Amino acid sequence: MRVAGQHADRVRAPVLLITATDDTSYRLPKAARWSAAYQRGKSVQLVELEGEDHWLSRPKTRLETLQALDAFLAEHLAK
Questions:
Q1: Which of 46, 59, 70, 78 is deepest in the core (most CB within 10 A)?
Q2: Using CA atoms, how far apart are residues 71 and 66, in angstroms rounded to an integer?
Q3: Where do the DSSP E strands lie in the chain?
């Protein structure tokens, strides 16, 4: 995923970033940096899943993820 962070300025489409606060594979500060990089002139949404891990182990946050994705797609595919 290093490439995506390096080329954030090339992305023209809206971006949805989903991260988990207890993810040991991908830390929240990294997601915040990516969010800042993508925001330069673009639509960016960062969803932080409280108490979740990398694998979406909790049903509540799996649902939260799907709802965020559904809302994001509904908003941006309608345009």
A1: 46
A2: 9
A3: 15-20, 44-49
- Residue 18 pairs with which residues in a beta bridge? 47
Burial of 52 (0-12, 13-18, 19+ CB in 10 A): buried
pLDDT score recorded for residue 59: 96
Rounded to an integer, what distance in angstroms lies between the CA atom of residue 46 and that of residue 55? 17
Backbone phi, psi, residue 16, to 5°: -115, 120
Half-sphere exposure of 38 (CA within 13 A, CB side): 20
Got the DSSP string for 9-77? GG--S-EEEEEETT-SSS-HHHHHHHHHHHTTTS-EEEEEETT--TT--SHHHHHHHHHHHHHHHHHHH
